[in-house]
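Here is one chain, start to finish.
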Amino acid sequence: MLKKILATILFLWVGSGFGEPVVAQMADTVRIDASQINTNALIPGIHQYLVYFKNGKDSSRVRYQLWTRIIAFEQYRGRDAISVKQVWENNSEVFHTVTSYCDRKTFAPLFQQGWWKTRGAGTFDFINGDATVNDKPLSSATDSAGKSQWNAFQASLHQYVLNWHLDLEVLATLPLKAHRTFLINYYDPGFSAPRFVSYSMYASDTLQGYDGQRIPCWLLKGDDPRYTEVFWISKMTHEVLKLEEHYGTTYRYKVKLPFSDAPG
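Its structure:
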């Protein structure tokens, strides 16, 4: 009997592929649904992030951007809703704007209208089930890209999804807890079909702010093997204060600014 127990333990240990102990296989995994979202964690007002890239961990910073995100609790078509308006700009121009409305309680998407300098405009109405890209109904698209976008949008209407374009806000609404893994059914309007994305709360860290302020943070890591992303989330406010992404030799950073200005 003892040999069987030891063999089972060894199988679970090695079978993970990472040499992790058995207890790691019993992690607290939560498949996020509407009942687990806490939109009260969102802070109304202007939030701005400095975004920049590095061509290597120790290289100089390049391609500076400023992302402005304005959160408000308001009414949308007679519903209690949350709006998130975003303006992304680089050193010379605004290259992306988007306005999103979500349900006040569940944070499920209700509507999104966006514009990209390189892609044009898109509107996605989750209430009426309509979508347009560059003023053309997506339902009548004849090209493969348009058909794929329409099918992805249609799929999102029949399941609980969260807007991947609002990931910084979504992460703030999660039931954060040490050693917990989250499965989030994400959909980014205008892009690929909904899919579950895994994030693991794997450690804690402390960021230092003005006047020597020390801010305890959760470290939340995306589990996609194609790239690495780590979010620093304030334990006190649940705001995402920092993101570090790494794919190939490219690094991208987002750092929340302590003071914000209204977009131009």
